[in-house]
Amino acid sequence: MRGVKKHGIHEVHASMKKPTALLTLLVLAGAPAFAAQLLTLNKGDHICYLGNALADRMQHHGFLETFIHAKFPDDELVFRNLAASGDEVATWHRSENFGSRDDWLTKTKADVIFAFYGFNESFQGKDGLDKFKKDLDQFLKDRRANNYSGRGAPRVVLFSPIAGEKINDPDLPDPTANNARLKLYTDAMAEVARINSVPFVDLFSVSQRLYAQAAQQGRPLTFNTFMLTEAGNKALAPEIFRALFNAAPPAGNLEKLRAAVLDKNEQWHARYRTVDGYNVYGGRSKLEFPSAGKESPMISNRQVMQEEMTQRDVMTANRDKRIWAVAKGGDLKVADSNLPPVESFESNKIDVSPYLDPQEAIQHMTLAKGCRVNLFASEEQFPELAKPVQMAFDTRGRLWVAVWPNYPERTPTSKTGDSLLIFEDTNGDGKADKVIHFLDGLNCPTGFQFYKDGVLVMQAPDLWFVRDTNGDDRADGKERVLMGMDSADSHHTANSMVLDPGGATYLSDGVFHRTQVETADGPIRNTDACIYRFEPRTYRFERYVPFGFANPHGRVFDYWGTDIITDATGNNSYFAPAFSGHLDYPAKHAHLKEFWERPSRPCAGTGLIYSRHFPEDFQGNFLDCNVIGFQGIFRVKVSEDGSGIKGESVEDLVKSDDPNFRPTAVDVAPDGSIYFLDWSNQLIGHMQHHIRDPNRDHAHGRIYRITYEGRPLLKPEKIDGQPVDKLLDLLKEPENNVRTRAKIELGKHSAGEVIPALKKWTAKLDARDPQYEHHMLEALWLHQWMNVVDEDLLKRELRSPDYRARAAATRVLCYWRDRIKDPLALLEAQAKDDSPRVRIEAVRACSFFKTAKAAEVALAVLDKEADPNKPDYYIKYCLDETMKQLDKFTK
Fold this sequence. Notes:
alpha+beta; five-stranded parallel sheet; 36 strands; about 25% helix; globular; disordered N terminus
């Protein structure tokens, strides 16, 4: 071949335009499957990542960046990651005033752009190819028409998506169909890159080779078929390096250098993906407050928060310098002594009430008749108990609490982060005497929930799965299992995480948010508020209730699986089955009436009482934590109302005249008592005071415990480490808390162990037991929890003599619809059921289909109405929303 230099197995063609910078690699048979071009870096180059979660995750592992610094130690390179889960070449889904792609490339002075696209776009299939190629061509031309750094047009390297990995796990999807699309889009990218003379790296082909090698060792490189683990990025980084530089990556122990890279990346991530962006650069950043009294100059959120962002920029740059020093074989202590100042100011609220002693605060509480309260824990005994935001009891009966002392978010110079704590009452006196720091160094841990042998922790923009692998009660392993949950307002970040009876958990967004999450079924996007449903076992993620919430806080499921959702700002609580049907993005559900006329607002959290320690009239009561005006926990009697429910206020569970009393969460304990958190804060809300108002408290927090006089506490059930048959018997318990924790423990076992034992358990159940139908429903829910479809059991529950079981089974049918034979035929029978509760679940389920037949099934619900022209309120609402979704399939 003419004009070719021989370099081992690679044949390298001289570039057409910049022979000193770019070369085209041709790969011989049997070599790594790259068709890439060589990249030359110049001293001081700024290299910016753009693109989807593949690029986003690289900053948290740091292998490629470490290799490049090690290879070019004297070049003092600067890396900035601008990628975000869900990004596409023609999509930039960000909260208000975040800044455009070009704005950030200019700010980071991009000389080189690593562009990772094609994964999210590929879900448009063949029909989307032409648009994708057009968009990609325009993207390349636009980038190269700019001079972001002042040193000329950026050099762009285009990377294909990786392939999906086939993992031997029945809970994960087969990536074959996705890979067929990904191959089409990889080829399209290669074509557009060639036309534009842009270097292109085919990661699709090389990832398939890496997967094959990993499979031989029984070690997958992804955890969900499409997102690389740390091991996956460790395997991929050398291949990318070889493609870029036509050389092997540097050898030797590079962990010190990688640690320096990760430290810098953590600082940059905190800056680029800052929490509370709506107050940093968005609409509320413009809010102004007196800086030192009524007549003093005004100071805005933006002024102070932008000064903090400047500090983060400097801190990131300081860590660049350490990377350069380590890359050269030395080191540099990062002192951060060069940070610019942040303006200080006085509070706009000086008439605050002093904090009461935690024990004294009890004297200011009024409790429901028969109830008494004691202090379980406070900041006095446990200084780390500051700003508790969510709690849950684990399978050992211990109380886990997410604390947020850095509320509303960490400052750049904060030394101690937020935490996930474990409180223990070792002597059974109803008071904590031990605390364990399970996970520290967090920033705004607004929600968490248990799963298998670990815990899901909301750490926006990501949801982490965190485990303790050596049994010391301290986190030592984590995986970002969801990426792209927005946090434009930390008040509105995913919170109140709860498990439904079938094992899914629920996340949320408030207004101002722009979330986009990558899934094996395509990107899920939302604008403003929404509730999301996430199955941690299968990684399925979807919009659950797209609605005009302001700020959802509070999600609960009753004994039969009916859920209530609360919007915090207005303390508006809703019968969730009516508005949790599917709508294609960007549609939102219409206005829905509240199930209960709340006396006050806002609400920080909700709960339900199922505990034999309390009298019968407490059972099933809805609990609503209110933090302004009325400061206490409302108690609501819930009853049937046609196809839905209605609420009636009864005697409040607890209220206080302490102006700093702020109950944020409430739950039933293993012994049947009721625990609640007290945020304990003088200031409440973001709009009323500066985001950095000095009176925002960082030191107080209490946990209280309510019992009922004259009634024995329950004996806490042993759950942790119990055998499967013992755990199955706990599914008979009346307390939701016990049954849920039993299923969490069962989730640690394989389906192959649990399901056969479950079949034996159901066979031994006594059909004369008054709770028999609920026990059988629990068996169905446990199948759902373990992701095992049992069509016969489902059909049995769909025809259960108890309408509540039939309704719950209809919900399960909805989520098994792609694995059940003729699901619409089953729904047709449910739509004609005698119970309106069953019928509304059938209508809701129809919204998830994409056929005209589904619309026919949904409309059949009117045949059972006494007056089809004036149907039940909730059925009419749900039918209207379902038809709004299905209308496109009927034309």
